[in-house]
Structures are given as structure tokens and as C-alpha cells.
Amino acid sequence: MTRAITLHDVSKSYTRGARVVDRMSLAITPGEFLVLLGPSGCGKSTVLRMIAGLEEIDEGSLFLDGEYANELPPSERDMAMVFQNFALYPSMTSRDNIGFPLRIEAPGDDPSPKVDATARMLGIEDLLDRFPAQLSGGERQRVAMGRAIARRPSAFLMDEPLSNLDAKLRNHVRAEISQLTRKLGVTTVYVTHDQSEAMSLGDRVAVLRGGVLQQVGTPRAVYSLPENVFVAAFIGTPRINLLRGLVRAPLDGAMTISLGKQFLRLPEPLSLDHQLLRVQQGREVIVGLRSEAVRIAKPSAARPGEMPLTGLVEHLEFQGHEVLVHFNTGSRPAVVPELEAPRPAPARPGVRRRRREGGTVLERLRERAGALRAGAERTGAERPGAVATLDDPGRPDPTVVSSAPASAEPRLPGDLIVRTTPDIRLRHGMQVPLLVDLAHLFVFDQHGRRICPSPERLPDLEE
Fold first, then answer.
1. Helix %, strand %, coil % of the chain (to 5)
2. Which residues form the ABC transporter domain (predicted)?
3. What CATH number does the domain containing 41 carry?
4. Is residue 463 a part of any domain in this protein?
5. Tens digit of pLDDT for each residue in 305-360?
6. Range of the domain at 141
């Protein structure tokens, strides 16, 4: 038996009132493998614990198979949880650890047949008489999974189960988890901050930031059509190239996006998505280009929809099967503030913090400076290095713009990373012709929302 899990406007707050999870709604179908993805501290594990009944839900509703379950105790939810730290009893053998929940559920029954069947499924028959201290990390994780599987629960809840394993073993156990859950057909909610795990395991991926659900979709849909800058930058290796651009749409000439020293000319006739960019005339936008959207080739080799740039080689990363080339194109990188941070910047424009009693003069001056800076943001004053944040404008947290210059943000060499084959010979300082495929061009507004491709357009995922 497997089950459907539905969250409706679920929120969770702790001591100071800040919402760890903010009005999250999510429907998980029976037998689905859903991955909760986001940076550390974004509320993923809290969501998982609320589903399991280990955390109370402050606001909103949880439904299990359509039945209200907010007050249902964990023991009656028929779920099994796999923790990050294995959580094995050190004084019990692997056999006893796997059989422990079975003995609790049915004290008079012999758990041995189910334990043996689970051990065969996981290939750990030879580990049943060993204690946790005698097992490697991967073996302990298999025992922990066996303890969850032996109960034949209606749902698996996995809280970063692979984060304590080395890279090689992590890839192996990841494949085992995928094969096992599909074989059992049990609803699985999997928490991770590793986007490669999310993309390879999940039927769908739910991306969180600051307790707010950013986007839910298949791995391919989330990668190919991100809702905002945060999703675009968080998913994908290497990270998407984000450049500051300025839309120029004269009535008597071609539409272009200026990238600083160079520009991208949009091919005519304009596609529907590019036509919609006319409303951004004279506005600064964020241009997103995946590394595979740019190739090294001369302008004479351009295909339909490709436009030329030139780049200066600054750094080469040899990956064996490919090379990542870092180019300097004279563009201005769009530095998204606190991209990896769990929560948006806490300061809110236009909201003056209450002065703490006993505050020093320096603290009051800093507070006053913050209020003045917030006022400048409200007026849209131009500042060097100002870039957009990613907060959903429908949420209480408004947009906060970083005043730090882009050069202060640590970044890799160059402003454009291009993926190419290892047979292309390049050297540092070489001037190289590039072709940009504008069919794979992302454009985001200053609030981080995607405006191109049009939000109404959906990719054909059957191609």
C-alpha cells in the first residue's frame, strides 16, 4: 500500500516568529518519488518532519490519502524515516536493528523472515550479526534503510541519507535507492541540498528557498524552464552564466541586449518571446546562458538563431570528457545576493527596526544608514553593482537589492563559462569567436522573475 500526501498552505515558525516554512502547498501522488531541494537551512527537513509528525504544523493542513492528519500521531501515519546520521542502536546487531520496529508493532511475531527478506533485497545478509561499530558508512546506511523497508510502510521519508558517504559510495547507494523505491512502488519524499541527487532520483523536484516553494516540476522542466533566477542558478553544473544586460528596442532598428562592451542582436523576424522583451526597453535585465548554449565557432559557421560574441580565454578546467572554458567577454556579471543562503536578506526596505534599548551610537548610525539605503532602493536610484534578488513579489518579503559592487563578490575567473570538447586546443589569453544560441536564452527582470521564455510557455518534454 502506498499513499498520497498533500500539504495545503503549511507554515512553521520558531521562537522569534520568523517562518521556517511559509505557506507551502504541495501534492505528492501515490508511488511518486519527490525530492525537496534547496540550500542548507531552507526548511526542507522541517517539511519532512511535519509530514512524519515529528514537528507540529502551526498553520495549514496535512492530508494523507485525503484525510486530515495534522493531529495524527507519528505511530499512526505508517511512514518510515531514514535519517542523515543512520540512527542505529549501537548495542544491537544489524539483525536486531532491522527487526526492532517489527517487534514493537507485533510483539508476539517472529521478525526473522521479514528481516532475512529485507537483507537479501539489500545484499547485506553477511552483515546481520555485526554491530554498527563494525560496519562502514555505506553498510550502516543500508542497515538503516533495511530497518525502514522491513516495515513495508506506505511512505519513505529520507533526510539527506547520503551526505555522510564519500563521493564514489554516494553514487552507488543513490542508484540502489532509485532501483529499490521503484521496485517497491512506495511514495518517497527525499530531502537533499545536492542538485545532482535531485536530478537523478526524483520524478519531480520541489525547490525551496527561505521556506518558500520556488518551483515544482520534473527535473527536465525545472532545468529547461526555471521560474526565477534562484532556480536557474541553483540547478545545473556548471552554474548558469548570469550577465547584466540592457534591452534596446528602437522602432527603426534591430532589437539588441547590451552586455557591456558587446551586445546580442536578436534575430529577425522576432520570435514571440523576443517580441515581449520590447516592454523592457531601456531597462536592466539579467541574461542567463547555460554553458551548452554557447559554442566556439566563427561567425561564418553560425546556424539560424545564433549570434556572435568574442571572448578572451582566462581559465581552462579539464574534466576529461570535456573542458570548461572561462571567457572574459567584457560583460557585467549579475551577482545574485546570498544565492546559497537559506533565507533572503532579513532587512526589509521601508521597515525601520525597533531600536534596542542600550544600543550604542554606532549601532544607531548603522540603523539610520540602512534606512537611508532602503529609501534609495524604493526610489530606484542607480548604484554601481546593484543586482536583483530572488524573492517572490507575492510574498511578504519584498525585493532587497545589494549595494555591494560585483567585484566584491567571490567568483570564478571570467564572466562566461562554455562547455566544449577536449580536442579543441586553447590557451590562456587567446581571443576566441563564440556563437550564442538565442533559442536557449533566458531573460529575468530585476526582481529575478523569468520574462523570456514567456512564463506561459511550457517545454515539450516528450521530444
1. 30, 25, 45
2. 5-235
3. 3.40.50.300
4. no
5. 899 999 999 999 998 899 999 999 999 888 766 564 555 544 444 444 444 444 56
6. 5-226
Give domain status of residue 342, yes or no: no
Q: Could you tell me if 145 and 275 lie in one domain?
A: no
Q: Spell out where 259-401 has E strands.
A: 263-265, 284-289, 294-296, 306-318, 323-328, 332-333
Residues 6+ apart with CB under 8 A from 287: 242, 243, 244, 245, 257, 259, 264, 334, 441, 442, 443
User: Does pLDDT of 397 surpass 90?
Assistant: no
In this structure, the answer to whether residues 222 and 240 fall within a common structural domain is no
Question: In the structure grid, which three cell numbers stand for residue 314, read together?
Answer: 582566462
Q: Which residues pair with 188 in a beta bridge?
A: 33, 156
Interatomic CA distance for residues 227 and 449, integer angstroms? 7
DSSP 449: B
d(CA 234, CA 339): 8
Tell me what pLDDT residue 367 has: 56
What string of DSSP letters covers 44-61? HHHHHHHHHTSS--SEEE
Whole-angstrom Cα distance, residue 56 to residue 49? 9
**Residue 56 domain-assigned (yes or no):** yes
Going across the sheet that includes 323-328, the strands are 294-296, 431-437, 306-318, 323-328, 416-420
- Is 123 part of a structural domain of the chain? yes
